[in-house]
Design goal:
This is Amidohydrolase family protein. Keywords: Signal. It comes from Flagellimonas okinawensis. Helix content is 35%, strand content 19%. The protein has 14 helices and 16 strands. Strand 8, helix 5 and strand 9 form a beta-alpha-beta unit. The strands form two sheets. Strands 1, 2, 3, 4, 5, 14, 15 and 16 form an eight-stranded mixed β-sheet that branches. Strands 6-7-8-9-10-11-12-13 form an eight-stranded parallel β-sheet. The radius of gyration is 25 Å and the shape is globular. The protein has two domains: 109 residues, Urease, subunit C, domain 1 (Roll); 352 residues, Alpha-Beta Barrel (TIM Barrel), CATH 3.20.20.
């Protein structure tokens, strides 16, 4: 090697060693070093980064060590993986999981313990952002919002129900945002003025309430022995969508049946809040082939890029009632207070009977396994054909102990992986794709400068191992690092 080349290399080496550091001025923050960042956008790993958090925002990301001015602490993430905090876009937080209003009144101490733990339970499994899909009144969220440690919470204008339709249990101001349908067969009480219950009026109220989405329903009902609930027309749904978008709201519609998905796919709504696991007169045979009638409906949703929430755990949560051994799962100790777990164990048979009557558990288990398989095969069809799949759990979906907060999201991910969904897709669905669907991607869904400092520090790479989501070192919420074990309902384990 000649002297001139050696001199050049020496100069370059000295320059790189003495290159000025990036100056970052912060008020109060966190510096993460040796960070391997897993991106849901590029779906790869960027190694050995520095991440500087200033308050609740990401101020700097880079492999060049910054010179940080201000007050900060340091977290060494060597050997760990950084991902954006997870987003569950379908939860319900205003009640106590699986307890009726009467049971809540009878057990105030259990309710208090549950509400105190609830925000921590979502964080324990990495859900730093959740979207409540059923609350008409923001004041019902107050207990959750007043918690010292909690995920970022958004909500939709629940109660935008078709007059006399599913989801409207009584005529009172408790559910003010019902939508009048002119061809409604049932009479609407005279005290309600039609002009206050048009899609335009309802969407305006929902938008002004601070909601990020408007939710309505296409649900004819579940009991064939009683008349069907009213459902919207195509014209009305088109009007609802127009007014939702006028108010910068995502239109989310409840629906899980073949009839509902057929209608909603053609109506080109933004998001369907459930998977198509109710196939009506069709069923999954031994060949595991989707009937052409089901495929046709899914194809329409794929073509229109309608957001599709598989909500696989809705079915599994009900099936779990056939086997109370689920209540011995050690993971429940982290997300539920012990007195609530004890209550479930003491009332497990009653909870089963309240939903399934005296139906044999073996038959219920078999039928719900088939329905679950239908949901999973639909999920894979949507994935393989370019469907717009979003992550939401519907926690809790019904009066069952099978959908515990936080843990239910992990179980949903496990089911998706079991169905064959690639791990990179699961990551993107639960982060950036959810953020885009609900117009939150300016601040959420990826690890980028300027975005919200909601991050997870994992002990495993989630692109290689689904159990990484149950192997969390730290949860960083709004820039503040929290050791995962301190979030457990069982307390710190030394």
């Amino acid at each position: 090697m000649n002297k001139s080349l050696i001199s050049l290399l020496t100069t370059l080496l000295l320059f790189s060693c003495n290159a000025p550091k990036v100056d970052i001025a912060i008020v109060n923050g966190l510096v993460i070093k040796n960070a391997d960042i897993v991106s849901p956008l590029s779906q790869d790993v960027s190694s050995n980064n520095f991440i500087v958090l200033d308050g609740d925002s990401i101020a700097y990301i880079g492999q060049q060590e910054p010179h940080v001015k201000g007050t900060f602490t340091t977290l060494d993430a060597k050997g760990k993986f950084i991902i954006p905090g997870l987003i569950d876009s379908h939860v319900h937080i205003t009640g106590t999981d699986a307890l009726s209003e009467e049971e809540e009144i009878q057990n105030p101490e259990i309710v208090a313990h549950y509400k105190n733990q609830l925000p921590k339970s979502y964080l324990y499994f990495g859900y730093t952002t959740i979207i409540d899909l059923g609350t008409a009144h923001p004041d019902r969220l107050q207990d959750f919002l007043e918690a010292e440690i909690k995920p970022d919470l958004f909500y939709v204008g629940g109660g935008a129900v078709i007059g006399n339709g599913y989801g409207l249990t009584n005529w009172s101001d408790e559910v003010p945002n019902f939508i009048y349908q002119e061809n409604e067969a049932y009479p609407i009480p005279e005290e309600y003025q039609k002009e206050n219950h048009t899609p335009k009026a309802v969407a305006k109220r929902v938008g002004e309430s601070g909601a990020i989405a408007l939710k309505t329903y296409y649900e004819p009902g579940f009991d064939p022995t009683i008349p069907s609930f009213p459902t919207p027309t195509f014209e009305l749904m088109a009007d609802i969508k127009k007014e939702a978008h006028r108010n910068n709201l995502t239109l989310v519609v409840h629906g899980n049946s073949l009839e509902a998905h057929d209608f909603l796919g053609q109506a080109n709504v933004d998001v369907i809040a459930h998977g198509l696991w109710n196939w009506g007169k069709y069923s999954l045979g031994d060949s595991l082939t989707i009937p052409k009638e089901i495929q046709k409906v899914l194809d329409t949703e794929i073509e229109n890029q309608v957001g599709y929430m598989p909500t696989l755990q809705v079915i599994n949560g009900l099936k779990i009632l056939t086997n109370a051994s689920f209540l011995n799962s050690p993971e429940l100790d982290h997300v539920l207070p012990q007195d609530l777990i004890t209550y479930y164990k003491e009332h497990s048979e009653t909870m089963y009977a309240n939903i399934f009557g005296d139906a044999p558990k073996e038959i219920i288990e078999t039928n719900f396994t088939r329905i679950s398989d239908q949901g999973k095969i639909n999920l894979m069809y949507m994935y393989k054909n370019g469907g717009n799949i979003l992550f939401g759990t519907d926690s809790p979906s019904s009066p069952t102990y099978g959908n515990p907060p936080g843990y239910n999201g992990y179980l949903e991910m496990m089911e998706m992986a079991d169905a064959g969904l690639p791990l990179n897709k699961i990551l993107s669905m639960a982060t950036i794709e959810n953020a885009k669907a609900f117009r939150l991607d300016d601040k959420y869904g990826s690890v980028e400068e300027g975005k919200r400092a909601n991050l997870l520090v994992l002990n495993k790479n989630p692109l290689l191992d689904i159990t990484a989501y149950n192997d969390i070192s730290h949860v960083i919420i709004n820039g503040k690092p929290i050791n995962r074990e301190t979030l457990s309902a069982a307390g710190r384990k030394d």
